[in-house]
Amino acid sequence: MTRAGTAGGTWRSVVRTGALWGAGAVFLALVGLVEAVSRRQIVAGVLSLSYTFILLAGFGSGVQVSRRWAGLAAWQRLAGGAAAGALAGVLVGLLVVIGRLANLRPMLINASLPLYEILSFGRGLGGLPLMVLVQAAAGAIGAAMLLLPPAVRRPVIVGLGTAFVIGLFQDLVQLMLQSGVRAGLRSLLFTGEGLAPRGAVILMVLAAGGNIFWTRYRSPVRRWADRLAPPRRRALRGITLVALAGAILTLPWVTGLFISQVLVLVGLYTLMGLGLNLEVGFAGLLDLGFVAFFAIGAYTVGLLTTTGPLAVAHLSWWAVVPIATVVSLMAGVFFGLPILRIRGDYLAIATLGFGEIIRLLVLSDFLRPWLGGSQGVLGIPKPVLGGLEFRGPQQLFYLTLVASALVAFVAARLRDSRLGRAWMAVREDEDVAEALGINTVNVKLLAYGIGGAFAGISGAIFAVMLGSVFPHSFNVLISINVLALIIVGGMGSLPGVMVGSLALIGLPELLREFSDFRFLVYGAVLIVMMQFRPEGLWPTAVARRELHEGVPATAGGGVELAGAHEPDG
């Protein structure tokens, strides 16, 4: 290929990249996100969230062009990034021009005059050249980021990211800095409108400095710890664990009620995820009706503890939790019996039907006298232990934490046991596993039963958290969310379940202030994550090797993989 042809191809990639990112900025503007967050200040008087979304088009196009032109000179990469950013700005400006000349509101309801004012920096059509110049500068900055050496680029990215995240969640951070010494820190970092410019600089410097310190001294610290005598090494490990446990135990009182509530929800989904991970991640049994076990545990606790007219018995919550666990386990075994011979997509459809059957039965008039129908079960008392009532999210956090730790310990022991290896053999190839003497019927039923028991524990905590149980709380979306967090965290990975729960349950709750647009941002984050981390956020060693190194999981087939445990990490 000639030099002219090569140059033409590279500049065509600049046009495509700039057009793609510019179209993304136009899309965010037309769905109403840019206007909706225009009052949200990331850095007070300097940068708002709406302009962050707009400038992200130029910055992202510059990064992408610089990555594609890695073999070219620095000035060429900077010029390409600036050109791509400028093109993204042209598309944004073109929206303003078209909107000024024609009324787009009948087709695009968010194409309003306030939006055009934002996109033109409040200067009308005269602000469009400024938009192009700003986007070109953002593209050049994005291209320059990849020109920096890694030792410089990492601290810069960490510093900017820290300031952005603190500015984005400034309301939550300020709630945690309301009293005592923390109030002085709040006045230093924030103003009435948002993160102060001096606060942004302080956060960037601290975060970048911390990254440099960690990068420089991480290896020497590890070598020093490895040279310690075994008793001192165990003592150091114990001190670290105690400090970590202390930080976790004080977390709900430092973060406040809202964050505590979010952490409780994350814990509940972690419990369900650990249960479904036994079925999907270990045994390869796709279950879309998993919410049924969650509902069974909640209703069992509700009916046996409620003080209302539907009370079956007036037992304490501590006495009912083992009963709810056993009932959920039996329901899992009973549910597994009719679908033992079903595989693949048919199994997913069958399990989805089972979950809907449970919900519709609870809503039916036939069971209304016993289960309350759509009115649900009310008057569920809070657990009491030694005079301490678990009445709020800050108290329920500890209940959820202990339950999650116990269930995770049991799941880890099951994974490393003979039963866990049998599950993995069935997951890899059920026919070969059966030929090798594994009782696939018992193995599958145990997976359904134990997974259902874990979900029942989650339902038991959910019932006392709300103080009531309603059938509409157990829709199929819960099952899909639990399955999604397993995939995002890493299929078959126990730490991945916890990380996936934080990403899929905690993040949308923290973004709830953005109303209907939080799921748009949430979906975009998931798409980016699945592009760069298809194996999950915290995958098993086998999954990472299969997807990134191109090495077959085993040389002898799936059963050999099932017999050799790979550590998470």
Compose a concise summary of this entry.
The chain has helices spanning 3-30, 33-36, 49-68, 74-101, 113-119, 128-147, 150-168, 170-176, 181-189, 197-227, 230-255, 257-282, 291-305, 317-336, 344-363, 368-371, 393-415, 418-428, 430-435, 440-466, 476-489, 494-510, 518-532, 541-549, 558-563; strands spanning 41-43, 47-48, 384-385, 388-389. By secondary structure, the protein is an all-alpha fold.
Q: Would you mind describing this structure in some detail?
A:
The chain is mainly alpha-helical. It has 25 helices and 4 strands. The model is unreliable at 1-5 and 551-567 (pLDDT under 50).
What's the SSE blueprint?
Layout: H1 3-30, H2 33-36, E1 41-43, E2 47-48, H3 49-68, H4 74-101, H5 113-119, H6 128-147, H7 150-168, H8 170-176, H9 181-189, H10 197-227, H11 230-255, H12 257-282, H13 291-305, H14 317-336, H15 344-363, H16 368-371, E3 384-385, E4 388-389, H17 393-415, H18 418-428, H19 430-435, H20 440-466, H21 476-489, H22 494-510, H23 518-532, H24 541-549, H25 558-563
Antiparallel strand pairs: 1-2, 3-4
Beta-strand share of residues:
under 5%
The N- to C-terminal Cα distance equals 45 Å
Mean pLDDT across all residues, rounded? 85
Lateral strand order in the biggest sheet: 1-2
Sheet with most strands: 2 strands, antiparallel
Residues in helices, as a percent range = over 70%
Provide the domain count. 2
Helix and strand run:
HHEEHHHHHHHHHHHHHHEEHHHHHHHHH
How many strand elements?
4
User: Rounded to an integer, what's the Rg over CA atoms?
Assistant: 27 Å
How is the CATH topology of the largest domain named? ABC transporter involved in vitamin B12 uptake, BtuC
Overall spatial form: globular
Task: Provide a count of the helices.
Answer: 25
